[in-house]
Amino acid sequence: MVVELNVSRKSWPIAGSFTISRGTKTTADVVVVELVEDGHRGRGECVPYAHYGESQDSVSLQILALKDDIEAGLDRISLQTTMPAGAARNAVDCAFWDLEAKQAGKRVWELLGLAKLNPLTTAYTLSLDTPEMMGQKAQKAAHMPLLKLKLAGPDDLDRVAAVRQGAPKSRIIVDANEGWTAEVYQHLAPKLVELGVEMIEQPLPAGHDEALRDIARPVPICADESCHGLASLADIEGKYDMINIKLDKTGGLTEAVLLKEAAEKAGLGIMVGCMLAPSLAMAPAMVVAQGARVVDLDGPLLLAKDYENAIKFNKGIMSPPSTQLWG
């Protein structure tokens, strides 16, 4: 029985700023959950996302509303039906996993039947800017094996061309963050093939993406905002080639693992992504990202600082988390 639940908020400064089609951020604001039982401490971290009506205040209150239930014996399995999917459940779910691993004297991936956690190659994100500035950023990041470009519309082809010139050896994927129309996609897709773009993430707004069923997809399209948990799959099949699994959308590692299994059975490719956050949020995502076609867990690389026992990155290769961090 968990004897203590603690909830805290942290704000991590971004190295400069981070811009997508919906706006610019200068801090990564997270909520951290700590569960304590018999001297063992489990932690989980989430990113409240305003696009989904979440804030640090609302998520903290959501978690604290479960305090009595958790301290009376609510476990991770019961949590899945007690709390809706979202950032709040993610933090609690991942804290339960961390606690269970520490109590068992094993790593989380061992509890899931994996012998080990392999290092992963993560994408490195270039935030939205002018073509010239994105080209300059690409030159500085040309040592990264995989670049992810945030796009927005009118000058996107010039942006990708500038990045390709600045980082000729890097693989490229792009993310429109719901910023295109079907006509823009049809115009850009063949040209993006020529520039070596390997994947397009969420070109059309979620809920307004039916056109994807009937148009050619020369570049694989990945559902992000259109993909949350298991219930999303029925509408995704036939419109998308891949899904982006983010723990803040699935409501934790527990449903993320189930979503990955179901998506693979449906023939969909797997991408595992993140919100902008430090290493504690990336660690559980590394578990579900094993074997994924695309990994995008570069949140810590975009911050000015990170946890003391942070995940180690070397030219886009991320090492498994230490026990001091999570899992």
User: Biggest sheet, strands in spatial order?
Assistant: 5-6-7-8-9-10-11-12
Shape: globular
Radius of gyration over all CA atoms, rounded: 19 Å
Report the uncertain regions.
none
Highest CATH level, the class of the largest domain: Alpha Beta
The CATH H-level superfamily of the largest domain is Enolase-like C-terminal domain
**How big a fraction of the residues is strand?**
15-25%
| CATH 2nd-level architecture of the largest domain | Alpha-Beta Barrel
Let me know the number of strands: 14
| Main sheet properties | 8 strands, parallel
Structural class call reads alpha/beta
Characterization of this structure:
The chain is built from twelve helices and 14 strands. The chain has helices at 56-64, 67-71, 76-82, 87-104, 108-111, 131-140, 156-166, 182-194, 233-236, 247-250, 253-265, 279-288, and strands at 4-20, 23-37, 40-46, 120-121, 124-126, 146-150, 171-175, 197-201, 221-223, 242-245, 269-272, 294-295, 313-314, 317-318. The chain has 327 residues and is an alpha/beta fold. The longest helix has 18 residues, at 87-104. The mean pLDDT is 96. It starts with a strand and ends in a 9-residue tail after the last strand. Strand 13 (313-314) and strand 14 (317-318) form a beta hairpin. The chain folds into two domains: 4-105, Enolase-like, N-terminal domain (Enolase-like, domain 1), CATH 3.30.390.10; 120-318, TIM Barrel (Alpha-Beta Barrel), CATH 3.20.20.120. An eight-stranded parallel β-sheet has the order 5-6-7-8-9-10-11-12. Strands 1-2-3 form a three-stranded antiparallel β-sheet.
